[in-house]
Amino acid sequence: MRITQAAGYAEPRDSISHDWLDLLQIWDIEPYPIPNGIEGMEKFLDTIEPGIFILTGGDDPGTGDRRDRTEKQILEYAAATNTPVLGVCRGLQAINLHFGGALGQVDGHVGVQHVVQIHAPFTEIYGGAAEVNSFHKSSVPASGLARTLIAAGVDQDGNIEALVHPSQPVAAIMWHPERGGAPAADRQLIERLAREGAFWH
């Protein structure tokens, strides 16, 4: 979850957009928000027995150690248990950093729609191109993509807008399924990832 500040209080809080909770329930996915900084994360996740992890957006990696650590623990747990992971916006950035990639900056990607060129293996879901929403300033330039990851979508400047791990059930997109202007095919991506894992094998 995102870490936010309550107005008038010096009291950091974990939060998640109602848009996510509403969307997942419409898609018959039961949400279990994961707190940041919880002790005994592995035991906590064993109790939930998640079918898929979604690393949501909001803020950039490196702006809050508590959330960074939580995402790292989730990615390590997912790898150990072969649990699928979908990264969204910041989640894509966190996955790229986790596997040794780097981030850059991009202009004109906040509150706009634009077209992403889709590459395999996402072409079977989205076709050759998709119009998506965009709410980010940090990016993954082509030169910053982790060597162990594969680009599944790029913008007109070659920045990575979607990626997968070649063998692990890890995928990510820079657009937001929970917001307006997202492709309807996002539901298929999440469902296939949850059911089949790395369906691109």
Key features?
201 residues, alpha+beta, Rossmann fold, seven-stranded mixed β-sheet, two-stranded antiparallel ribbon, 6 helices, 11 strands, globular
Describe this structure as you would to a colleague.
This protein is α+β, with helices and mostly antiparallel strands and 201 residues long. Helices cover 29% and strands 24% of the residues. The strands form three sheets. A seven-stranded mixed beta sheet has the order 3-4-11-10-9-6-7, with helices on both faces. Strands 1-2 form a two-stranded antiparallel sheet. Strands 5-8 form a two-stranded antiparallel sheet. Strand 3, helix 3 and strand 4 form a beta-alpha-beta unit. Helix 3 (65-81) crosses helix 4.
CATH architecture: 3-Layer(aba) Sandwich
Q: What oligomeric state is this?
A: single chain
Rounded to the nearest angstrom, the radius of gyration is 16 Å
- In spatial order, strands of the major sheet run 3-4-11-10-9-6-7
Q: Specify the CATH homologous superfamily.
A: Class I glutamine amidotransferase (GATase) domain
* Number of domain units: 1
Note the topology.
Layout: E1 2-5, E2 12-15, H1 18-26, H2 41-48, E3 53-55, H3 65-81, E4 85-88, H4 90-98, E5 104-105, E6 110-118, H5 123-126, E7 129-135, E8 138-139, E9 150-154, E10 160-164, E11 170-173, H6 186-196
Parallel strand pairs: 3-4, 4-11
Antiparallel strand pairs: 1-2, 5-8, 6-7, 6-9, 9-10, 10-11
